[in-house]
Design a protein that fits this description.
The chain is an alpha/beta fold. 41% of the residues lie in helices and 17% in strands.
């Protein structure tokens, strides 16, 4: 094998620079803490649903579940929340049948805690349905706040000079590559999201138009949007139709895929 052109000292410097670069560009995972004042099951359900969906959407968020109580059953899966648990969380959600009782219990146990909290009232229906709906809304908010990881694959062509010229050169650049990049950018700028109910028997659908994609990619994007929105949909005449008023969720997902999508209409 040919001898390496790098000395040990140079290799050490390169490795250190790489480590610093990775550290500087790493995204700190944030934590949602689900607290239940009575039922460990409620917190576990919310924790499981959130983790699964956050992983699918490649968010920088994860979650944990704790029991907000002064005594625990021996067979309880959740451990009792501590002040350190609250301090380590970026967002705390109370799961309770009575929002006032849950808030009072939290203040009583941790009077010094002043972090960000939100209460989900589980008394109005099926617990799993309520949790699923609230988790979906929370994920949309987190995505809109920049909660999705930045994939290395999203690096623009212009940021890598080796992609501009044949043979990996860094000379005057490739006009063809620049034109292709401009066309992709232009097509992503023209995407519009709207809702429509006229002529649909009173039912509302969310329509994504202006997509410069072939049928296979339209179908793939449609499938992803249906998963994010938790509903049905179809591809028709080069447009994606999603059942229900899903404009906010669709916009969030498209924007995280690099589309400069805008809402049109009402």
């Amino acid at each position: 094998m040919p001898e390496s052109i790098y000395t040990n000292d140079l290799q050490a410097i390169l490795l250190e620079n790489l480590r610093l670069h990775m550290t500087a560009n790493s995204e700190k995972t944030k934590l949602v803490l689900f607290l239940s004042p009575a039922s460990c099951e409620h917190a576990c359900v919310a924790n499981s649903v959130f983790k699964d969906e956050a992983l699918k959407m490649d968010l920088i968020w994860t979650s944990n579940s704790k029991l907000l109580a002064s005594s625990l059953k021996e067979n309880s899966v959740c451990s009792e929340a501590t002040l350190e648990d609250l301090k380590s969380a970026d967002f705390v959600i109370l799961l309770a049948n009575s929002s006032s009782n849950a808030s009072s219990a939290l203040k009583s146990m941790f009077p010094a805690w002043t972090g960000k909290t939100e209460t989900w009232d589980l008394s109005s229906g099926n617990v799993q349905d309520i949790v699923a709906q609230n988790v979906g809304k929370l994920l949309v908010r987190l995505i809109l706040q920049g909660g999705k990881r930045q994939s290395p694959a999203t690096q623009s062509v212009s940021s890598n000079p080796n992609l501009h010229t044949p043979g990996g050169g860094t000379g005057g650049g490739s006009k063809g590559a620049n034109n292709a990049e401009a066309k992709i950018s232009s097509s992503k700028d023209s995407v519009r999201v709207s809702r429509e109910s006229k002529g649909r028997g009173g039912k509302t659908v969310t329509i994504v138009s202006g997509l410069a994609l072939d049928d296979a990619n339209l179908q793939e994007l449609s499938k992803r949007l249906k998963q994010v929105c938790g509903t049905g949909g179809t591809v028709k005449d080069g447009k994606i139709e999603i059942q229900g008023d899903q404009c906010d969720r669709v916009l969030a997902e498209l924007q995280n895929k690099g589309y400069k999508a805008k809402r049109s209409g009402g």
